[in-house]
Amino acid sequence: MSESSTASRPTLEAVAARAGVSRATASRVVNGGDGVREPLVERVRRAVEELGYVPNQAARSLVTRRHDAVAVVIAEPETRVFADPFFALQLRGISKELTAHDSQLVLLLTEGRDDHARVGRYLAGGHVDGALVFSLHLDDPLPELIHGAGVPTVFGGRPGWGDGTRSAASPVYVDSDNRGGAREAVRHLAALGRTRIAHITGALDQTSAVDRLDGFRDVMVDADPRLIAEGDFTPAGGERAMRQLLDGCPDLDGVFAANDLMASGALRVLRERGLRVPDDVALIGFDDMLPVAEQTDPSLTTVRQDIEEMGRLMARLLLRGLSAGAATVGSAGAGSQEGLVGAPSSVVLPTTLVRRASA
Amino acid sequence: MSESSTASRPTLEAVAARAGVSRATASRVVNGGDGVREPLVERVRRAVEELGYVPNQAARSLVTRRHDAVAVVIAEPETRVFADPFFALQLRGISKELTAHDSQLVLLLTEGRDDHARVGRYLAGGHVDGALVFSLHLDDPLPELIHGAGVPTVFGGRPGWGDGTRSAASPVYVDSDNRGGAREAVRHLAALGRTRIAHITGALDQTSAVDRLDGFRDVMVDADPRLIAEGDFTPAGGERAMRQLLDGCPDLDGVFAANDLMASGALRVLRERGLRVPDDVALIGFDDMLPVAEQTDPSLTTVRQDIEEMGRLMARLLLRGLSAGAATVGSAGAGSQEGLVGAPSSVVLPTTLVRRASA
């Protein structure tokens, strides 16, 4: 362990002694309270500086209820978090925004869903001002745990509940126009003259995947069920789904994959089967994940969503909600419903079709 | 924000009322204190369960000083953390070990060194039981801040200080035998008959890079200074260093790069200059980072260190130290010097040369 020691860490008592004030006065100054005369405030501040005093946040947070820290929870195993560049991009946006507000990004990693109860305990434990939660799956206990923890939260992607078992208040989220983007992709394939258009879905326990499937069905009304194969947003899942589609419908001439990673997997299978892209099969992804979408051969036509901007917006909505709450209800704001007063509502960002070589 | 509310979160008062005991008694039971008669303990426990009470960790931690959470600090910008698979591997080992002990992995991400003061504040704030810190650079204020925070810490890689300005107590760290591994790599190149052997160093403000350079010099005593080029552990840094080496010494016939990512960059430059590997130039990396080392063409001979195991060991040493401390000094153990009593000392893991096609 480090050479840390309690002796090296000055106490509030030491600060009070050096400033020549009572412990209560020193505490009020350190915790930003009012009612202390300016000369005393000045003396305490000088003592804090001279001693290098760091207030114990656990104690201070009982008074101020602010930690200057925001938790990020990605409801995926840590292996997935580091394998899928989507999460790195979203974290980049979040990190930039939190850093600009001097709030610490606290990423809570897990091995899997079994660990979500522990995440709930940490969130309930008074260590953060709020939480940013993304990649939720429908049967995940996390939203319930977050609800129980009483932490202001902004979700990345529209949460999937709506069955009336939870509070009537709506969750705040940032999402892309998944359904509209999917429609545009499929319409583009149709405009290219493709008639046997298939869809590789994402994990269907996530609203983003369901919405993209709905967008596909909006255009391909009464699509042959063999033209829809369930993937899981990973390259391996894209390969599996592409094999299944080709086995069921060897005459397909267009594929819309619900993300770029699955499209890259599908591309490998198409090449393996000797099919030319886009001549035999036109292919469209979703995300515009760089460098993936640019480095495939042929490069990928895809539905662009601004993932980094989504992260930035999530953080911005949360911070805005926290400070709006603080302004309204004072120091008891964060961590309670009143902390949400004045919080902005959800945001759905538009998508754009980016044309490259694959369709 | 979520539909969270204070109303939905039961208080300790509610637990006490339901159990028919005083608040003080309820508090003692919830915080694991002694001196409460068993029937009362039972009644409080039942009330906790029935109400779904979650103790406020900030309050509880003032009593118990345990958070069941460990911070991980990687002293690199978050962009680097997600771009270099080294960190994902080390985090994987840490995550597995912490999860096995139901301790929450709290990854503190930053945009850069300017944010380390904030990390220090979070560590000092009583949110975690200890910290795992890796990828330290020599002039980083982080060790000083961690020292000030008084958090038990295990370092990944030997910290670079030793100038007497810090406490006499030695930091606990997990490292690989960087110098020995480097010696083995360079000896292997020499045994292949190579006489003009160059070295691409890592970032020389990190001890791992300095140790590997020392290992190189152990074998190549009085090496031509033009045969040493400073890199930074990134593929782009490897490319730059390789260009510099070839410009200064076009006749070089062997290269030891201080990690696989730089070796992959060097390989691209060698190919670009029309040099065959290993025929014209034999090349060795460090890490055995998969899939990088296997997927280069030719595949990479490299010095293997078990990165995931290093992460696991770091977590194990920290947890062992914490529980040894707790056993010795009771609940005041974590966060204080006494928490370190019985803590094991540092570990240096052996390395192995893995022979593939490049040397």
Automatic annotation (TrEMBL), chains A, B:
A Pfam family hit: Peripla_BP_3
Keywords: DNA-binding, Transcription, Transcription regulation
InterPro entries in the cross-refs: HTH_LacI, LacI/GalR-like_sensor, Lambda_DNA-bd_dom_sf, Peripla_BP_I
Key word Transmembrane present: no
Domain HTH lacI-type: 10-64
SUPFAM superfamilies per UniProt: lambda repressor-like DNA-binding domains, Periplasmic binding protein-like I
Entry keyword Transcription regulation: yes
PROSITE patterns, per database record: HTH_LACI_2 (PS50932)
Protein's name in the database: LacI family transcriptional regulator
